[in-house]
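Onboarding guide, step 5: your first structure request.
Type a short instruction followed by the sequence, for example:

Predict the 3D structure of this protein.
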Amino acid sequence: MNDKELLRSVMRRQAGLSLRVAAVFLGIIFILPLVNLYAPELAATNVGGFSLTWLILAVLFYPITWGLSAYFIKRSNALEDAIVQENAK
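The system replies with structure tokens like these:
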């Protein structure tokens, strides 16, 4: 496999990973308003002095983002390592 094909392979796999991580992130963001609209009792549930909605938006938003970022970096590095090993043969 030449360098261009290798680069395309890495980029294609990382793009797929990016889309999956973005889908999870956007799912969380878009589901919250729907929970507020269709399950207001659940959204208003008191958890540690916050409503569930505010707990997710104000307290858990950054840890969720950091977790998704750490997952992306770990999987991205693993993808690169796997591609290198596949092409070293």
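Each response can be followed by summary notes, for example: The chain has a mean pLDDT of 92.
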